[in-house]
Write a structure and sequence with these properties.
The protein has 280 residues and is α/β, with parallel strands linked by helices. It has ten helices and seven strands. It has a single domain, classed as 3-Layer(aba) Sandwich (Rossmann fold).
Length: 280
């Protein structure tokens, strides 16, 4: 077990990819802190993660800790990291997974339709109609939250001269494919630049910072979105992915584990994009 007794904090870890990452670290012996801003979802996730452990782990209650906090609130973030250290003594790995995702179904549907045709024929009218609040909320979670959590983690990692930070980004940050959500693309593009800069800043202290610019992931949210698109459009969209399918949670989680391991010590400030060939 390559992460035995390592302490890992995963933001946005109660469902989907975040939960899959938590399960993967637990399987490798880590002590895992799962963060979510919704108490009910967090409690359910922690119960299910503990139920998947061996009897000795469940009895000790020692390897899974759930901490409810909104990552866009710096005070709440600092308190969360303090609680994690109080429980487990330190922090070895941070996975910045929490994010707001686009919610404009009209624009998403039009985007998906236009992606399956050679030439977009009209504006999606997203930027011109976007409110200040929508822009600020996206940045508050996806960029401010990234900064707050990274800052808190580095304050623990730098004195120890050791740590791994893996930022979960999106191909929206390295391409124009998510043109239905320019605010989301901007936030994930910011994550890319932040990763590169901080990665160089802290490698001298033995801390690796890297980013995964994720393509499509086979989560419940993606399945629901494709179901709403209908079979014909879903088939067209899958044809746009050279691999012909979405990535699995296990495939993404295995990459997170690699970047968080000592085997990746020479990978610094990089952006790796598993996307089935959509962006190369």
């Amino acid at each position: 077990m390559k992460f035995r007794d390592k302490v890992v904090l995963i933001t946005g870890g109660s469902q989907g990819l975040g939960r899959g990452i938590a399960q993967a670290f637990l399987a490798e012996g880590a002590r895992v802190v799962v963060n979510c801003r919704h108490a009910g979802a967090l409690e359910k996730c922690v119960e299910e993660l503990r139920a998947g452990l061996g009897p000795e782990d469940v009895h000790q209650g020692a390897r899974v800790l759930g901490l409810c906090a909104d990552v866009s609130d710096s005070t709440a973030v600092d308190a969360m990291f303090a609680q994690a250290v109080e429980q487990f003594g330190t922090l070895d790995v941070l996975v910045n997974n929490a994010a707001l995702v686009p919610t404009d179904e009209r624009a998403r549907a039009e985007c998906m339709a236009l992606m399956s045709t050679p030439i977009p024929k009209h504006s999606l009218r997203v930027t011109s109609r976007m409110s200040d609040e929508a822009w600020q909320q996206m940045m508050a979670v996806n960029l401010n939250g990234l900064f707050y959590c990274t800052r808190a983690a580095l304050r623990i990692m730098e004195p120890r001269a050791y740590g791994k930070i893996v930022n979960i980004g999106s191909i929206a940050g390295i391409s124009g494919q998510s043109f239905h959500s320019p605010h989301y693309s901007a936030s994930k593009g910011g994550m890319v630049a932040f990763t590169r800069s901080v990665g160089l800043e802290v490698i001298g202290a033995g801390i690796n910072v890297n980013c995964i610019a994720a393509g499509g992931v086979g989560t419940d949210a993606w399945d629901l979105m494709l179901a709403r698109a209908g079979d014909a459009l879903k088939l067209q969209l899958m044809q746009l992915i050279p691999a012909g399918r979405l990535g699995t949670i296990d495939e993404y989680a295995s990459l997170v584990l690699y970047l968080a391991s000592d085997a990746a010590a020479y990978i610094v400030g990089q952006v790796i994009s598993p996307n089935g060939g959509m962006v190369t």
